[in-house]
């Protein structure tokens, strides 16, 4: 298996533009997580899907952020409009859905908003 | 409020020594705790899982302890090597029907010098 796939790996955009990050989880995994990592705040959970259904989105910063999982093999995280404070590395992770299951992280998308 | 604390300062040790990293938590009742390793520019990688009813877990040169009274986990790397240099993250999970959702600490950077 290729592992969790994220695209793009790097994204540079101007403030106010829409940004879409993409994730393909490991086949057979029924849980998917979006995280954001910064030096100041560390690794923060944004949203968690189980069987394609959003279970917990309490970490989504504000209405500018939205996430979808239309099927078991694809998820998107969208920021519209983007702001400089959204600059961070965004990770997608997938796992089997039982408590204690290890999470497999993708390589991340480094987002820079100027 | 819930808090997970890891030493934010880098830990520098000499090759061959044992590295000990600490994870403390407050206002939390985790059912299990996981440790991950993160190398620069990459996503975290799962290392070990320890559940609340387990005191200690070992895997090769790694050992994890979990003290629910002290609200602390210790992560040990014996006979450390320069290749062990990385950031190590602890993560807590519960059994509250939230699947395997995790809350991560801020991580501790380990530097092993030859």
What class do helices, strands and sheet pairing of chain A give?
A: mainly beta
Shape of chain B: globular
Low-confidence stretches of chain B: none
* Uncertain residue ranges of chain A: none
Largest sheet of chain A: 7 strands, mixed
Overall average pLDDT of chain A: 96
Number of helices of chain B: 0
What letter string, H or E per element, gives the SSE order of chain B? EEEEEEEEEEE
Rg of chain B, nearest Å:
14 Å
Q: Report the strand count of chain B.
A: 11
The quaternary organization reads as heterodimer
Largest interface, C-beta within 8 A = A-B, 28 and 25 residues
The major sheet of chain B is characterized as: 6 strands, mixed
What does this structure look like?
The complex is a heterodimer of chains A (114) and B (114). By secondary structure, chain A is mainly beta. Chain A has no helices and eleven strands. In chain A, strands 2, 4, 5, 6, 9, 10 and 11 form a seven-stranded mixed β-sheet that branches. In chain A, strand 7 and strand 8 form a beta hairpin. In chain B, strands 2, 4, 5, 9, 10 and 11 form a six-stranded mixed β-sheet that branches. A five-stranded antiparallel β-sheet of chain B has the order 1-3-8-7-6, with no helix packed on it. Chain B is an all-beta fold and 114 residues long. Helix content of chain B is 0%, strand content 55%. The radius of gyration of chain B is 14 Å and the shape is globular. Chain A binds chain B through residues 4, 31, 33, 35, 42-45, 48, 50, 55-56, 91, 93, 95-108, and chain B through 31-32, 34, 41-46, 49, 51, 89, 93-95, 98-107.
């Amino acid at each position: 298996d290729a592992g969790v796939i994220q695209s793009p790996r790097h994204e540079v955009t101007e403030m106010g533009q829409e940004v879409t990050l993409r994730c393909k989880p490991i086949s057979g995994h029924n849980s998917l997580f979006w995280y954001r990592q910064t030096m100041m705040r560390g690794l923060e959970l944004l949203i968690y899907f189980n069987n394609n259904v959003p279970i917990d989105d309490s970490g989504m910063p504000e209405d500018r952020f939205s996430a979808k999982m239309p099927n078991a093999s694809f998820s998107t995280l969208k920021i519209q409009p983007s702001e400089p404070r959204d600059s961070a590395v965004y990770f997608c992770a997938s796992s089997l859905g039982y408590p204690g299951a290890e999470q497999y992280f993708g390589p991340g998308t480094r987002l820079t908003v100027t | 409020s819930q808090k997970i604390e890891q030493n934010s300062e880098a830990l520098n040790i000499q090759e061959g020594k044992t590295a000990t990293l600490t994870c403390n938590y407050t206002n939390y009742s985790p059912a299990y705790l996981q440790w991950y390793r993160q190398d620069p520019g990459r996503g975290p990688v799962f290392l070990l899982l320890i559940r609340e009813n387990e005191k200690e877990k070992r895997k090769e040169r790694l050992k994890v302890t979990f003290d629910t009274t002290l609200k602390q986990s210790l992560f040990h790397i014996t006979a450390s090597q320069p290749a062990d240099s990385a950031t190590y993250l602890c993560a807590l999970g519960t059994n509250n029907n939230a699947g395997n959702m995790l809350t991560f600490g801020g991580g501790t950077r380990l530097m092993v010098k030859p």
